[in-house]
Amino acid sequence: MDLKTLCEINAPSGNERELRRAILEEARGLCGAENVRIDRMGNVLAFRKGREVGRPHVCVSAHMDEVGFIVLGATEEGLLQFRPVGCIDPRVIVSKRVTLGDQKLPGVIGAMAIHLQTDKDMERVLGYKDLYIDIGAKDKDDALAHCPPGAYASFDTPYTPFGEGFVCAKALDDRVGCYNMLELMRERYPGDVTFAFLTREEVGLRGSIGAGYAVQPDISINLEGTAANDLGCTESRFDVCCPGRGVAVSFMDNSSVYQRRLYQKLNRLADKGGIAHQPKRGVTGNNDAANFQRAAGGALACTLSVPCRYIHSGASVCCLSDVEAQYALTRAFLMNA
Amino acid sequence: MRTEDFLRESAALPGLSGNEQAVARYIADAFRPLCDEVRIDPLNSVIARIQGRGPKVMLCAHLDEIGLMVSRIEEDGALRVGHVGGVDPRILPGMRVTVYGRETLLGVVGAKAPHLLTAEERKKNYKEEDLYIDLGMPAERVRQLVQIGDCVTLEGGFTKLLNGRYAMKTADDRSCVAILLRAAELLQRVDTAADLYFVASCQEEVGGYGAMTAGFGVDPDMGIVLDVTHAKTPGTPEYEAFSIESPTIARGPFLHPVLTARLEEIAKANNIQFQQEIVPRYTSTDADDLEAVRGGVPCMLLSLPVRYMHTSVETFDMRALEESARLLAACCAAIDDTWRDDLWI
After folding, report:
1. Could you tell me if residue B211 is inside a domain?
2. pLDDT above 90: residue A124
3. In this complex, is the C-beta atom of A110 within 8 Å of any C-beta atom belonging to chain B?
4. Hey, are the CB atoms on A230 and B96 less than 8 Å from each other?
5. Of the residues B20, B65, B204, B314, which is catalytic?
6. What pLDDT, on the 0 to 100 scale, is given for residue A283?
7. Domain that holds residue A90
8. For residues A262 and A252, what is the distance between their CA atoms, to the nearest angstrom?
């Protein structure tokens, strides 16, 4: 399945069904239906038997869900009140388009006209309590008939090739990981591999709690998209990672201290294989590797990330060569684990 | 031409104030089958005439749009921008824009990431100078393709919502140009006395200069200006925002009292719903400039309420647009030599 198809499916945390179905079908085709299951947290677990015995069991994981929105109710005039699902800075949602529910009903998030605002208003951040989704409803009943409380919304952004070798899309975090897992699944490896497509990462690493317990791997390689702040003359010490310079290998983030020997092995493999890579230079973010590292009796863990600019916005940007590098390094590891 | 198609297609064309060539050509082509003569004046206003022997009437809606202009290319290839017209910087972070360089380029507006801001900075909005445009290419390539002064338009997109409502960039004011076009269509089978000039004016967003110069060229006996006004949303001030469902007719010192009363009568006679808008001073539309052209041009002001003005999701009601066109056509049909009589007595 191509990255465009994956990005354009809506799967806000807790509402991953459409993407789960698509991934399930693809995974069954690649691994055999008997090797693919859905666990009790909605994760898709696909098992690839190794060619040899005595090798460690590796779990490669990526989360299916994306940041999005959920409807709380509606105003008398028919505007939907909502909150984010996952962390979205409200400053990036003003004057943007969304789609709601399974029927992908279009909506827009407006702001009161600049003409009607005081200078003081203009300084204040428009928060979720000040913003509404407009679907064109006549009144409250009309709005709630189309989008009842609990309806989910996603950014409405087409996947678009961008600049030179880049793409701009919603949900690159973490469809890049899902995409590479589906590609990696095409092969068999010396050891056993489980590919775990996870739910609800963006609301607190929830799906991986169940998957970690279900899989109990020896080694966890988590594939992610991570924030890059390299442009606009940001001081280089703040960049964390740079799109176009390869897959970012984490030594630590806010939820895990990765075992040094695994980090070093991944770096050695990348050097040896001529795979573009960079250390993730900064301790930022949380991800599912934490739950695999601590599942049952514990596992070795590391995270390999594609650098993404404007992550958690409707227009995230990444470099396709970094997506390839994430694939290449994960494959090299699976061949040598 | 279907109004929806006109709006979708014209919204996709760039027309920043002062650089309206592309959208002006498109609008001139749209008027051509409906009018006796069509021209584009030296500033980029489109002037389309349905000839008559009666009073000269200038119908005016602006074709230009707000946007950004490249002001600096940073060492890393990020573009800094200034604004053309009143762009609210709060709508920009995470927006996809189009940069009209040597090639037409997709850009994404970036800002310093939230976790790099101090707690104090996080409470404030980004200012224009905090933002940049990412083109996804190396700095040297950016310098080959982009120059200072290149135009940048906001996210396009044309979204059909429920109940005949639409969200688009440049509903301000191409929805009103659409009203002009629709009125011209409705007048095709009507024998009008008035000499009608449909003007899609340029440079409204920077000061009404298109209406001023086109008005000089046309030298009309009266003007009907069409622009957008604010539609109500939570928090909009009383008397400054209106129901999205019908047009407004404005009264105030910049507008002619007798003509305005006649326009209201025509609306009532044709069973067209309208709201009254009271504008105590400047109307902040082309009427302010047209009214003062040559020896003076008595003006009426008909407005279409839109939500979220000056964003890329300006939202309006198609029925209100249709009804505005019906009112405009009815008014044009009614204007005859009796409208030349002294309107001040």
Report:
1. yes
2. no
3. yes
4. no
5. B204
6. 87
7. 68-155
8. 12
For residues B216 and B130, membership in a common domain is answered with no
Q: Searching chain A, which residue's CA lies closest to the CA of residue B105?
A: A163
Cα separation, B167 vs B165, in Å, equals 7
- Percentage of chain A beyond pLDDT 90 is 90
Number of structural domains, chain A?
A: 2
Structure tokens of B100? 């009209």
A143 and A278 share a domain? no
- Residue A265 to chain B, least CA–CA distance (Å): 30
Total domain count, chain B: 2
User: Is the preceding peptide bond at A218 cis, omega within 30 degrees of 0?
Assistant: no
Beta partners for residue B26, in sequence order: none
A117 with A174, same domain: the answer is no
> How would DSSP label each residue in A40-61?
TTS-EEEEE--SSSSPPPEEEE
Give the CATH number of the domain where residue B89 resides.
2.40.30.40
Strand partners, B16: B19, B65
Q: Do A79 and A55 belong to one domain?
A: no
Direct distance between the N- and C-terminal alpha carbons of chain B, in angstroms, rounded to an integer: 42
Domain boundary among B153, B176, B203: B153
User: pTM score, two decimals?
Assistant: 0.91
In a domain, B321, yes or no: yes
Mean pLDDT by 10 residues, chain B (345 residues): 95 96 98 98 97 97 97 95 93 96 97 78 86 96 96 94 97 98 96 97 96 96 98 94 97 94 97 96 96 94 97 97 98 93 75
**A256 and A331: one domain?**
yes
Within 10 angstroms of residue A35's Cβ, the number of other Cβ atoms is 17
Beta-strand pair B79-84/B67-73: antiparallel
Whether A48 is covered by a domain: the verdict is yes
Phi/psi of residue A334, each to 5°?
Answer: -65, -35
Residues of B in contact with A89 (CB under 8 A): 93, 114
On whether both A282 and A197 belong to a single domain, the answer is yes
- Grade residue A112 by pLDDT with cuts at 50, 70 and 90: confident
What average pLDDT does this structure show over A137-145?
Answer: 97
What integer pLDDT is reported at residue B44 of this predicted model? 97
User: H or E segment at B305?
Assistant: strand B299-306
In the Cβ-directed half-sphere of B292, how many Cα atoms lie within 13 Å?
11
Question: The domain containing residue B257 runs over which residues?
Answer: 3-65+157-340
Within a domain: B225: yes
The pLDDT score that the predictor gives to residue A37 is 96
